[in-house]
Amino acid sequence: MARVDVTMPQMGESIAEGTLSKWLKKVGDAVRRDEPIFEISTDKVDAEIPSPTAGTLAEILVPEGATVAVHTLVARIETQKGAPVAVAAAQAAPNATPAAAAPVAAQTPETVTATPAAPVATAAMSGGNGHGALDDNSFEGRLRSKSSPLVRKMAAERGIDITGLTGSGIAGRVTKRDLLEHLAATPAARPAVPPSMHAPGGAAEFTGPLPEPWPGDRVEPMSKMRALISEHMVASRRTSAHVSSFMEMDFTRVAKIRASKRRDFEAATGEKLSYMPFIIKATVDAIKKYPIINSSVAGTNIIYRRPVNIGIAVALDWGLIVPVIKHADDLSITGITRSLNDLANRARTKRLSPDEVQEGTFTITNPGVFGSIMGTPIINQPQVAIMCIGAIEKRPKVITGADGEDTIAIRTCAYFSISFDHRVVDGAVADQFLAQVKRNIESFPESGVI
């Protein structure tokens, strides 16, 4: 018999710790290789972590709810001696300081250390890499600065040098609680904002008493993902000057193309053809004409992103994630459809990798699938705009015929909205962009499908 050490995986180069949110197996349970054995939450992802080997879960060393550094020993699996073990290629950073190294038990000749291979993940809505407020966001850099990206961003916004603070976290890292206590002790360090907006890290802070539960109420803590979504949404409202604009799109032509091409398309590609690939293609082509929509704000600089990476918001039972179609500007309708369907399916089964939820440059959200007519979504930082799709439905419309006479016709339509950052996107530009999307949809080429 041999025992295999299971460690906290590193879900991306900028992630230095994770919270073990749930054990999916208990001591004594048999596990198969690549079978999920525990769930983790980080500042970017929620993930199911697969077993690196087949065997029996012999020990659980980290309890649910504990936050530990990457590469920390969390469990041991007992397996047959010589059984194959998946070992991740990326191990602990060689330059990490000894104090930050993961605690690992002394190993016997029959003990193997393995980071679970190919961890599968879903993303909290973190705005891609928007939390990397400081220059060095590498694993080593985060250990040196002793904080998570969220804490570092909070500190940077308040002009605080966290390297001078004493941290209570793993390896002396500065936690959010440490920073809040420092802010409370030094009120002058707080930014000059209205009292109701004193919300370090983006969490809303009430000026009055917090609500109390009443008899019969159920009280439960937010999940890691829900807490992060809460923080990111409030932080985005504080960061960007949100403005929204609306426009109605006529999908009658696209609906006819989709109906006529659907069977051949599905036979040729094996993929179901929805309206979304048409929308993404129309959006990408509009972004090419209005590149400010595909930008980010960095202080007084504007970063015009070269790739067009389209994030698609996916609603889950436990939250919201935004997988990203990378280089969507290089893809055909077929390529967009394959990427879209693959990402959405794996998002719902927690099989996304960390890089598939990062580096988005523009986001599309589609509450119309639930019947919503229109909405004003919050910008996904550090992007400058997000487009919302309302329900696509048949409506009576007044149209002008070739003879100039007005008639009532049934058209397939939807309301689109765009929320944009007025710091860099003017209202006229946002409307011109949305109007270009409208033109692209309403004149979509039939030859562009297959």
General description of the model:
The structure is a single chain. The chain is α+β, with helices and mostly antiparallel strands and 450 residues long. It has 2 domains: 2-123, OB fold (Dihydrolipoamide Acetyltransferase, E2P) (Beta Barrel), CATH 2.40.50; 243-448, Chloramphenicol acetyltransferase-like domain (Chloramphenicol Acetyltransferase), CATH 3.30.559.10. The chain contains 8 helices and 21 strands. Strands 11, 14, 17, 18, 19, 20 and 21 form a 7-stranded mixed sheet that branches. α6 (276-289) packs across α7 (333-348). The model is unreliable at 87-110, 118-130, 132-140 and 188-204 (pLDDT under 50).
Short recap of the structure:
With 450 residues, the chain is of the alpha+beta class.
What is the topology?
Layout: E1 2-7, E2 17-23, E3 30-31, E4 36-41, E5 45-50, E6 55-60, E7 66-69, E8 73-79, E9 111-114, E10 120-123, H1 139-145, H2 149-157, H3 176-185, H4 224-239, E11 242-250, H5 252-269, H6 276-289, E12 295-298, E13 301-304, E14 310-312, E15 314-316, E16 319-321, E17 324-325, H7 333-348, E18 362-365, E19 385-389, E20 393-400, E21 406-421, H8 427-442
Parallel strand pairs: 1-9, 14-18, 18-19
Antiparallel strand pairs: 1-8, 2-4, 2-7, 3-6, 4-5, 5-10, 6-8, 11-21, 12-13, 14-17, 15-16, 19-21, 20-21
Please name the defining characteristics of this protein.
450 residues, alpha+beta, OB fold (Dihydrolipoamide Acetyltransferase, E2P), Chloramphenicol Acetyltransferase, 2 domains, five-stranded mixed β-sheet, 21 strands, globular
| CATH C-level name of the largest domain | Alpha Beta
What would the CATH topology of the largest domain be? Chloramphenicol Acetyltransferase
- Assembly type of the chains comes to single chain
Main sheet attributes: strand count, strand direction, barrel closure = 7 strands, mixed
What is the fourth-level CATH superfamily of the largest domain? Answer: Chloramphenicol acetyltransferase-like domain
Strand residue content: 25-35%
Radius of gyration: 25 Å
Principal-axes shape call: globular
Look at the helices and sheets and give the structural class: alpha+beta
* Helix count, DSSP H or I runs of 4 or more residues: 8
Integer count of domains: 2
Please provide the ordered H/E string of secondary-structure elements: EEEEEEEEEEHHHHEHHEEEEEEHEEEEH
Count of beta strands: 21
Report the uncertain regions.
87-110, 118-130, 132-140, 188-204
User: What is the mean pLDDT?
Assistant: 80
CATH architecture of the largest domain: 2-Layer Sandwich
